[in-house]
Amino acid sequence: MPANHTAKGRLILVSGPSGAGKDAIIDGARRRLAGDAGMVFPLRTITRPEGFGGEIHVAVTPAQFDRLRRLGAFALCWGARGLNFAIPASIDAELASAATVVVNVSPAVLGEARERYPLASVVWVTASVQTCRRRLLLRGRENADEIERRLADAEEICIEEDVDLLVNEGSLDEAVGRLLAMLRQRMPLPLAGGHLPAPMALYSS
User: Fold this and answer.
1) CA distance 127 to 145
2) Is-contact 5 118, C-beta < 8 A?
3) pTM, two decimal places
4) φ, ψ of residue 45 in degrees (nearest 5)
5) Can you list the domains of the chain with their CATH numbers?
6) What does the pLDDT look like over 76-86, one tens digit per residue?
7) Which residue of 75, 97, 136, 149 has the fewest CB atoms within a 10 Å radius of its CB?
8) Nearest to residue 23, comparing CAs of 50, 43, 45?
9) CB neighbours (10 Å) of residue 160?
10) Which of the four pLDDT bands, split at 50, 70 and 90, describes residue 139?
11) How many Cα atoms occupy the beta-carbon half-sphere of 110 within 13 Å?
12) Which helix (H) or strand (E) is 76 found in, with range?
């Protein structure tokens, strides 16, 4: 049953292949919009220790994750690369209060997410294989063989009319600005301050 059939807000599902820069772009948007109560960037819950590189997240053990899932603490959850990831169930209340909620989700859970939240919008962040490889190497979380397997397993998506494409081959500031423009386009009400760039449906460097 859809979770947000009466929601007043908008859910933005940010997805794309590993190394495309989703975490950095979302974090940059979160920093620029700090203090705007109408914009929510919930932390993901991950069975990965804190300080292990990459995004800021809520770190839990696998046992804790399973208990939270049984208690209904998650709106969405999935497994990847031996880890478990989840989006908190608190997003339902935030959507009901007319907030714009931005979450980072795996391509593997997009179908379930869009079924559960039929009014959600998708931003697909992508980059060339070479760029993704370089970013994954700089991140230093996996060895070269693991990175190659991750790149080989990269999900593809059909860019439908309602999916915004963000090609992240330039600077982080540029990519963050493009995401902010997409948020302005998709959110129910104008962002506070009205200083964001004009919305566009398709971006490339």
Assistant:
1) 20
2) yes
3) 0.80
4) -95, 125
5) 10-42+102-203 (3.40.50.300)
6) 999 987 899 99
7) 149
8) 43
9) 8
10) confident
11) 19
12) strand 74-80
